[in-house]
Automatic annotation (TrEMBL):
Organism: Streptomyces griseoflavus Tu4000
Keyword NAD: yes
Keywords: NAD, NADP, Oxidoreductase
Name the record gives this protein: D-isomer specific 2-hydroxyacid dehydrogenase
Short name of one Pfam family: 2-Hacid_dh
Domain (D-isomer specific 2-hydroxyacid dehydrogenase NAD-binding) ranges: 84-255
Length: 291
């Protein structure tokens, strides 16, 4: 049953909320507190997607509700897209495509772009996706550094203590950290200024991680060279100044959106539901009580 497609979802919740034992939610909407409260018999929340910041997991667990997401199956596609977006914004591929289509090539050569190979790239949040991005970048002879709450054992990359220090040490920053209150505004005006007028930003995490008004100002004022964004503060709304900028690559939150990966995510959702319905446990519960 799809709650959002019902003519009167509130009425359904009043009449049948107590019968629902499993809720499946997208990472975008999650299960908010009001919905959680309307489902007194809920035992599991199964997210389609790796992000789960839209559900209060601590609150759910306190009520005995277990929560799962779809890790691993989307890592490669998100990392592929992050690296593609980095190359796009640094080499200005989308802008060059627009240039050719608009007939610019017959009037003047396209302006020179920034080299990718051999540059210093900072990965903000070295989880599964961050590590997959870093591994790919090694193939470009990129010097990778990272910033994460705790040191990540067994990786050959330099760890910087803060996002600011990482931005100061790098030519480009790729944001792969989890969303939610703990990372809100982590890429601040100061971080963008540390990245500098030659620096590029890629965000495949959550719009909330970047101070979007500060990013808009930095792009407009040329305080950073460019940005490639798959996520925004208020999707699907993209600030006008970004739409108007040729220095920005804009993507409609498609990092995991391949047929193969979306099928694998859907399959994992169904396997979580099945496991919960048959054995009362989830297959891929989200880690830690306070994650
Ligand atoms: O899995 C997620 O959290 C996503 O944002 C999918 O792209």
């Amino acid at each position: 049953m799809r709650l959002h497609e019902l003519p009167d979802p509130q009425r359904f919740l009043r009449d049948h909320g107590g019968e629902v034992t499993v809720a499946v939610a997208s990472a975008r909407f999650g299960v908010g507190n009001a919905l959680m409260d309307a489902l007194p018999g809920l035992g599991a929340i199964v997210h389609f997607g790796v992000g789960h910041e839209t559900t209060d997991v601590v609150r759910a667990r306190a009520r005995g509700i277990d929560v799962s997401n779809t890790p691993d199956v989307l890592t490669d596609c998100v990392a592929d897209l992050a690296v593609g977006a980095l190359i796009d914004v640094m080499r200005r591929m989308s802008a060059a495509d627009r240039y050719v289509r608009a007939g610019g090539w017959s009037t003047a050569p396209f302006p020179l772009a920034a080299r990718v190979s051999g540059k210093r790239v900072g990965v903000l949040g070295l989880g599964r996706i961050g590590r997959a991005v870093a591994r790919r970048l090694e193939g470009f002879g990129v010097e990778v550094a990272y910033c994460s709450r705790l040191p990540v054992p067994g990786v050959p990359y330099r760890r910087l203590p803060t996002a600011l220090a990482l931005a100061e040490a790098c030519d480009a920053l790729v944001v792969t950290v989890a969303g939610g209150a703990g990372t809100e505004g982590l890429v601040s005006a100061a971080v963008l200024d540390a990245l500098g007028p030659e620096g590029h930003l890629v965000n495949v995490a959550r719009g909330s991680v970047v101070d979007e008004p500060a990013l808009v100002a930095a792009v407009e004022e040329g305080r950073i060279a460019g940005a490639a964004l798959d996520v925004f503060a208020d999707e699907p709304n993209v600030p006008r100044a970004l739409l108007d900028s040729d220095r920005v690559v804009l993507l409609p939150h498609i990092a995991s959106a391949t047929r193969e990966t979306r099928e694998a995510m859907a399959d994992l959702v169904l396997r979580n539901v099945e496991r919960f319905m048959t054995e009362g446990v989830l297959l891929t519960p989200v880690p830690g009580p306070t994650h």
